[in-house]
Amino acid sequence: MTTLQPDEEVMEVLKEVDDPELIDVSVYDLGMVHSVAINDSDVHVTMIPTFAGCPALDIIERDVKNAVEEISWVSSCTVEFSFKHLWTTEMINDRGRQQLKKLGIAPPPKNFKEGEEWTVHCPYCDSNYTSIENVFGPTACRSILYCKECRNPFEAMKPVLQQELNAL
Fold first, then answer.
1. Residues ≥6 apart with Cβ < 8 Å to 97
2. What is the pTM of this model?
3. Could you count the other beta carbons within 10 Å of the beta carbon of residue 39?
4. I need a labelling partner for 22 at 20 to 30 A (CA). Which of 60, 64, 99, 130 fits?
5. What are the tens digits of pLDDT across the range 76-92?
6. What residues does CATH 3.30.300.130 cover in the chain?
7. Are 120 and 145 in contact (CB under 8 A)?
8. 118, 128 Cβ separation under 8 angstroms
9. Which run of H or of E encompasses 147?
10. Are 41 and 48 in contact (CB under 8 A)?
């Protein structure tokens, strides 16, 4: 039996904390976990919000804190959202991309470059014969699209690039 180091154990727990708006897509999968610091039995998790105005940050903070404090050796957990480090859609790992597709949400394109045309593949049939129906989706990070191949509406995560963030 392999024993995990404390920081590895915390990361394993964070892989199970879902984003409250995306069932089965963890904050870890989305690339929101920036760092974990451990001082004896106190854990400090620094996270990067997907968007500064995300209404779910309080829920994410609570869920991360509660999950980490379930670890037997942890006496307390603090969660901080860093705005010094900026999140991009490149931070979403492969599992996160797969889980988004299972929810009917097209993941953002990998290696997307500023100025390129944004091609979105349908999460249901993988066709790129799609059209944007509304750039504004249910959250700031998603748009509503329609697949002309399988005729299903779906959501797509908007690509957020580091280059765009550096311009801010």
1. 107
2. 0.85
3. 8
4. 130
5. 999 999 989 888 889 99
6. 6-81
7. yes
8. no
9. strand 142-147
10. no
